[in-house]
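Workshop exercise sheet. Pairs work together: one partner reads the sequence aloud, the other fills in the structure field after running the prediction. Swap roles for the next sheet.
Pair: D.N. / O.F.
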Amino acid sequence: MRDRLQKLAAADIELKVGRSGQFDVTVDGKLEYTRSTTGRFPTDDEIDDLAET
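Structure field:
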């Protein structure tokens, strides 16, 4: 996931340890995706969209 995001964007990508099952995508300091809302991991298309943010 990290590699895909880095290839698609020049944004600052950082992985952090979180709660069990937590998965958030923050782009340039802004929360853009959170598993706690969707209940699932993002699709490849959603990752592509996040990279364009």
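Discussion prompt: The CA atoms of residues 26 and 32 lie 5 Å apart. What would you look at next?
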